[in-house]
Amino acid sequence: MNNSKTDKLILLFNKVLLSVIVMIVVFPLLYVLLASFLEPNALISKGFKINTSDWTFEGYKRILTDGTIVKGFMNSILYSTGFTIVTVLVCILAGYTLSTEGLVGRKIIMVFFLITMFFNGGLIPTYLVVRDLGMLNTIWSIIVPNAINVWFIILARTYFKSIPKELKEAARIDGASEFKIFLKIVFPLSKPIIFVLALYAFIGQWNAYFDAMIYLEDRDLYPLQLVLRSILIQNEVQPGMISDQLARAELQKISEMIKYSSIVIASLPLIVMYPFFQKYFEKGVMVGSLK
């Protein structure tokens, strides 16, 4: 296929534009990654240069020897995994139920769900409910309040509608119950949407810190993002990471290196997960959007 001059100009413009966007996104990430390995003095004096002679693992050593970040990392894994399991399970079951044509009042139920996407009780009533249920300062205060996501339910419902009805009808003729139809037929065909929702849920919870800041009082229960927030925003580097004998200028340099290293460690799980979820992610999102 021969492109006209106009088409070639448009394609060239798109390539240049996309290259610029990629550089804008990639350069800060690359800078943070290399800055976490560079010796602070070299970073200040020489700037952004790839020189292995100036590399050091001091920032990572100080982080890994400090119990606060390690404990925060483990807490985040626990919260994100638990939240993902509960959210995906609830939203998949709700989406399948609402996709069933024989369900009486499903349109009214969807209207009630949609209303909650735009209006909610607010922070104070939610806090009072969490408190009265006895979930304050527990893992359940992180998992339960946001476990039901209406957007996830809509995605799951749309995906389930794309599954041929003939499969379910054949199973009903053979005497299968609705639960058995879901477990034996629908669920095995739903890997794309399950992985999409799991990825969305895990990333959302992994990056969240506000609920933990509101509901958790024990610092041993803090997730990594809340610990990282104190390092990056409030500039509270833990005493165990930096010796009290360090000079003020040296302390500031080490603090910057610890900040960069903390960002890299906080991003690792998402970077590792995405390649495995990518093929399901693309398929699941396209099916939901086309329907």
TrEMBL record:
InterPro entries: MetI-like, MetI-like_sf. It is a multi-pass membrane protein. Pfam families: BPD_transp_1 (PF00528). Residues 73-276 form the ABC transmembrane type-1 domain. The chain crosses the membrane at residues 12-38, 77-96, 108-127, 139-160, 181-203, 257-277. Keywords: Cell membrane, Membrane, Transmembrane, Transmembrane helix, Transport. One of its GO terms (cellular component) is plasma membrane. Signal peptide: none annotated. The keyword Transmembrane helix applies. The keyword Transport applies. GO terms for biological process: transmembrane transport. Its main location: membrane. It is found in: Cell membrane. Belongs to the binding-protein-dependent transport system permease family. This is Sugar ABC transporter permease. It comes from Metabacillus litoralis.
